[in-house]
Design a protein that fits this description.
The complex is a heterodimer of chains A (208) and B (85).
Chain A (H helix, E strand, L loop, with lengths): L5 H19 L4 H5 L6 E2 L4 E8 L4 E6 L10 E10 L6 E10 L4 E7 L1 H4 L6 H10 L9 H13 L1 H22 L1 H5 L6 E6 L2 H10 L2
Antiparallel strand pairs in A: 2-3, 3-4, 4-5, 5-6, 6-7
Helix pairs in contact in A: 1-5, 4-6
Chain B lengths: L1 H23 L6 E2 L5 H8 L40
The chains are: A alpha+beta (208), B mainly alpha (85).
Chain lengths: 208, 85
């Protein structure tokens, strides 16, 4: 049996413990993600200027909008980014959807036009995922810790998603051409997977 | 090894506590529809790459940092830590 690493156990504790603290105070990650706003308006960023962690070169925000891929129980999703070395150079690492009670329901990757990102290969994205951490102060600090834990907890699934994204993009690019594909409004979500925190925790418990 | 075992049993406890507590939490308010600006929406429809990552052309792009009003003036609220004159 494979042993469970201490960082993975810590990530699992944060992934469960942070939403538990919210729930015990009558709140949830979905409420917390709205950064104090009473209403969640389609496409608006929460917080308005995103959470930017210059020390780790990462960024996230929460928002909500429909897509033909959106699961029926999704309230909204986080977009996670890593910054490159130049200003305006950023790469989308993952989307993480939650339901209206803050339970994670889906991980996904997006086509270039969706975030206007600098496209990087799966191998490069995986390097960002290995180092991923986002920290902030104030009311979104626990949300940032939770996202950091979730990326750690789901790193194998995220790596698989970006690899599948690259395979799918390469196949379609051979037909459409890369530039056309990147701007193809019919393709927003490239790969996705439904997730269940309970199932992932059970998997970890069975290890080691 | 013992530490990991304790930790894993704690995970199970926290997981069931979370499932119970989450069921009692009120859902977040439903998402309200946005009024998208017509011009930006038509640019997106045309398939042109939006220059502004906040525009509907890149609906999930990071927020662009807005220059605060009066930030050239060190006395303005845009530079809240500027020395007093």
């Amino acid at each position: 049996m494979a042993a469970v690493s201490e960082p993975l156990l810590n990530a699992a504790h944060d992934a469960l413990g942070i939403p538990l603290r919210y729930a015990r105070s009558g709140s949830s990650l979905a409420m917390a993600a709205m950064a104090g706003a009473r209403q969640c308006v389609e496409l608006q960023h929460y917080p308005r200027s995103d959470v930017v962690d210059t020390a780790h070169g990462t960024r996230f925000y929460y928002h909500a909008h429909g897509s033909r891929h959106t699961p029926g129980n999704e309230h909204g999703h986080f977009h996670l980014f890593a910054h490159g070395s130049q200003p305006g150079d950023y790469t989308h690492l993952a989307g993480l959807s939650i339901d209206a009670r803050g339970q994670p329901v889906r991980l996904f990757t997006t086509n270039c036009w969706v975030t206007g990102e600098t496209w990087r290969t799966a191998a490069e994205v995986e390097q960002f995922l290995v180092r991923f951490a986002v920290q902030t102060q104030g009311r979104l600090a626990p949300v940032a810790r939770w996202l950091t834990a979730m990326v750690h907890l789901y790193r194998p699934q995220l790596a698989q998603l970006v690899r599948r994204r690259d395979t799918l993009m390469a196949r379609r690019s051979a037909r459409q051409g890369w530039d056309v594909l990147c701007e193809d409004r019919q393709l927003d979500v490239v790969t996705q997977t439904r997730i269940s925190l309970a199932k992932r925790i059970q998997q970890i418990q069975q290890l080691g | 090894m013992k530490k990991s075992t304790v930790s894993r049993s704690k995970l199970a406890e926290t997981l069931s506590a979370l499932m119970l507590a989450t069921a009692l939490v009120a859902p977040a308010p439903a998402v309200l529809a946005a009024d998208a600006p017509a011009a930006a929406a038509s640019a997106a429809k045309d398939g042109k790459k939006a220059e502004n990552p906040c525009a509907p052309g890149n609906p999930c792009g990071p927020a662009k940092k807005k220059k605060k009003k009066g930030s050239d003036n060190p006395c303005a609220p845009g530079n809240p830590c500027a020395p007093k004159k």
